[in-house]
Task: structure prediction
Amino acid sequence: MWKVRLLERKLKNADEITKLSEELKRKKKRIAFTNGCFDIVHAGHVTYLEEASRLADVLIVGLNSDESVKRLKGETRPIIPQQERAKLLCALESVDYVVIFNEDTPERLIRAIKPHLLVKGADWKGKTVAGCDFVRSYGGECLFVELVEGLSTSAIIERIIDVYCGSVK
Result:
């Protein structure tokens, strides 16, 4: 079949994304990197990724593995398994590549990719952003993108619980 499936084309492992990043830089492509759990992908995520994508030629998304999400968010998360979350992200036009990582932060990936831009949501302003100092050390930038107010995975989960189980508060 001539058409390569999105997941096969966009989902890369750490070694593949490192080599691909080097190739893209040789072609003078500007690379943006962002990361997250992206559990229950929603319109806020889509808007955020569209904004991040506009900042560069290529957007690479680091996706926390199931084990990583569990450590960061608790035993009840993720709601959606990593392969399904990866598939959803790969289906978005704004996302060029997805790479799943097991660590709690994407620092190792950022050091391997060496993106021109490290993009995070505005909720990270004033906080320590993994990889930001490294990206700035070679002249890259750390940028913050505004988020859609009221849209978060946690808020959606709380709303579902409230509707189907009664108030959680």
